[in-house]
Design brief:
elongated
Length: 136
Amino acid sequence: SKCRTCRRQAREQSGEGDHHEGLSSDEELTPTEVDEFHKSKDNVLEDSRKIFEDVHADFCDIRMILLKFQEWKEKFPDSYCDAYISFCLPKLLNPLIRVQLISWNPLEQNFTELEEMPWFRAIEEFSDAENVSESK
């Protein structure tokens, strides 16, 4: 476009050589915007740590919650089945998992794989236990 050509000519005249073709200068963030982003991100992370502060561990730890459902299934299989728990669990666990994923960034160099996260392993163990009990 005409604007892009004008910006490129201006860069060439001013000697800016660190521009990468395909990246628009409109999309580049100023240091102030970067600082504001980091402050905002830090505030969100700080707030997210407080979400379950006043909740008993049995009701905000995914592994503990799934253990309660496992006990229910073993002790009262008929009512467990009648309550369609397998359909309810994703909705129940969704907010807990989202809080744990707030800081997760797959674009960072040293990010944790989803399969390595504690909540993922807890769900995997629960699913394995369900499959074993169903095969019995």
